[in-house]
Amino acid sequence: MAVKIIFLVLFFAIMLGVGVYSRKHATNVNDFVLGGRSVGPWLTAFAYGTSYFSAVVFVGYAGQFGYKYGIAATWIGIGNAIIGSLLAWVILGRRTRVMSNHLSSTTMPDFFGKRYDSKALRIAASAIAFIFLIPYTASVYNGLSRLFGMAFDVPYAVCVIVMAALTGVYVVFGGYMATAINDFIQGIIMLFGIVAVIMSVLDGQGGFYNAVKELAELESDVPATMGQKGVFASFFGPDLPNLIGVVILTSLGTWGLPQMVHKFYAIKDEKSIKYGTIISTFFAIIVSGGCYFLGGFGRLFDTDKIHNADGSVIYDAIIPSMLSTLPDILIGIVIVLVLSASMSTLSSLVLTSSSTLTLDLIKDNIIKDMNEKKQLLCMRIMLVFFIVISVVIALDPPTFIAQLMGISWGALAGAFLAPFMYGLYWKGVTKAAVWASFACGVTLTVANMFFKFIESPINAGATAMIAGLIIVPIVSLITPKMKKEKVEEIFSCLEETVVVHRKRSIEE
What pLDDT shows up at residue 146? Predict the structure, then answer.
């Protein structure tokens, strides 16, 4: 217990220290929200990765999908690395930085408003972001609190409140730069922590080969496999179609999440994009791939602790049950690992929500005259407000972790992904197409919550994203176009001539 407490005290002291140190980088709106658009490759890449992977992934998703798909769940981590990190940086990174800077947009709703010349779109996007980031935040609290309960026997409510308070303090003090520096520190902990945990858990099962052998001897409970043995140790697992749905949601979904795309706004230069792409991909392979790989052995730790009275599986209890057998020092590392993942994601969520609410909804709409000082004050107040709401929901969560996150990701990415990505590349996207994408993503996800016409919220979210990618070009072809002069001015930034060093180009 002493080891665990020492780790926690050191961790909290560093996080708060960074918040205080970063105050000088949060003296105006641009610095508070974007770090002055001067954040280097390591900080940006780690901020992207740590915002991507939280306790939701480590506890909720790794436990649930590892139990369902066995070792094949590792494909989710690979998809996260290739689609969610590598391709996201390559396709969105540079254009997002160039166009958002040209339009002077600081948030995703602000981008929609200026890219499509519509104040109404900006307000609608802000409302969608604020509403659906709340259940995502609640799911982060939930996952972390289960591990705290396992390690310290601390009440769930205490865990939620302490974590929220600490995150709020350092974000309120230091803004984006505080979150970026802390994300880097937390990312280092996550990289080393996940490797140490995997090695220890497998060692407790007699090593990797023995663990795979035991997993291969388990009979499948998936009807389509007819009780076949070996599917949980197989290449594609017992349920490939649903596995693909999870890969799509958790990988492609990041392209439409405001708190993820926001990282590209703050990139410093071309070099930062190139190195950031490599670092972010490597981070995702280790952390996400490691989490799902570890979760794939969840069935080897099947005890009464992970089942309800009716025999149903408590997915959120699988990873904590697996880790409860580790030595105290490793449990301490795990606690700090998951705390790092969760606080980095939480800080990104609350910063995104408060800045969106202030700059896109309150400013110029509710309060007409907001100078720089008032905007900063309002964002800090909204930070606290958002944290309080998410804590209230987290104290009485409506469903388990993966469902909460699936609903949030489905609605946000279903609404935003298509109009954002197409908007960076295609001049022909219309306002009506953006409205159609917003309506489709939100309606499909919310309707599915009540009517369950798609059994899994994960698959519902994946369906919403794919639907948006189809709807936007179709609606754009049959609805009135934006004024040509306006569109040409928006895209003019991509045609500007820049001079580079010979080491970057061999052109004469």
Answer: 63
